[in-house]
Amino acid sequence: MVCVDDKSERKALGDLKLMASTLQRKCASQVNLVLASSFSCAVFVILISSLLLFRNRWRLYYIKNLVITRWYGYKPGDQHKTGKFTFDAYVLYSKLDRHFVLRDCLAELEEKRGHKLCIEDRDFLVGSFLPCNITSAIQNSHLTLAIISPDFWDCEWTEYGTHMSIMESLYSKRQILHLLLYKPFPVEEMPRDLIKVHKDNRFIEYPPRESID
C-alpha cells in the first residue's frame, strides 16, 4: 500500500496486517505489564494491612469493647484518679480451675485476708455480653490475678482477659496483670506476654513458701 504525504511524496506503508499485528502484540505486552504491576501493588497493600491489623488486633478489640461496654450502659468512674476500685482483684482462670478459685481463693483472699474479689462464676451478670463483663471487671479492679495452670491458655476468654488487662495497663499506666502460679509449668512454655509478667516479678506461688516451711 502506498500513501501520499503533505509534500506529495509517495511512500510505501508496507503490509498493514503485519503492522497491526505488531502493534497489537506491543499493546498487549504493555497491558499485561500494567495488570501485573497493579496486582502486585494490591497484594502488597493487602499483606501490609493484614500484618498491621494482626499486630494491633488486641488494641482494636480493646477499643471496640470499650465502645460496646459503654453502649450497654457501663460508664467508667474516676477509679484511676482516686485509686478507689470496686474490687481489689479480678480473678482470671480456666473453667477447669473453677473449684480451686471458688474454694481455696475465696477462703484465703476474701475470708482470711479481707480482699474483695471479682469472680466470673459469682459476680458476672448472667446473660450479659461476656466481653463487656470482662472489660468492666478489669477496669473496676485494682489488678487482674491470673490463675496459671497448664489449662489456662486453653480457654479463649482467659486469653482475651489477659490481653485486655495488658491493654488496660498501657492506657492507665498501671501494672495490672499479676500471676498466681497454681499449677506451674516451665516458664519458657508460657506465652510471651506471661513470660514478661513473670520476669517483672509480678507473680506469687501456690502454696506460698511460708506455708511450705
TrEMBL record:
Protein name: TIR domain-containing protein
SMART domains for this protein: TIR (SM00255)
Example GO BP: signal transduction
Predominant cellular place of this UniProt entry's protein: membrane
Localisation: Membrane
Highest taxon in the source lineage: Eukaryota
SUPFAM superfamilies to which the protein is assigned, alphabetical: Toll/Interleukin receptor TIR domain
Keywords assigned by UniProt, alphabetized: Membrane, Signal, Transmembrane, Transmembrane helix
InterPro entries from the UniProt entry: TIR_dom, Toll_tir_struct_dom_sf
Domain TIR: 85-213
Transmembrane domains' residue ranges: 33-54
Any one of the GO CC terms: plasma membrane
Family matches, as Gene3D superfamilies: Toll/interleukin-1 receptor homology (TIR) domain
Pfam families linked to this entry: TIR
Gene Ontology terms for molecular function: signaling receptor activity
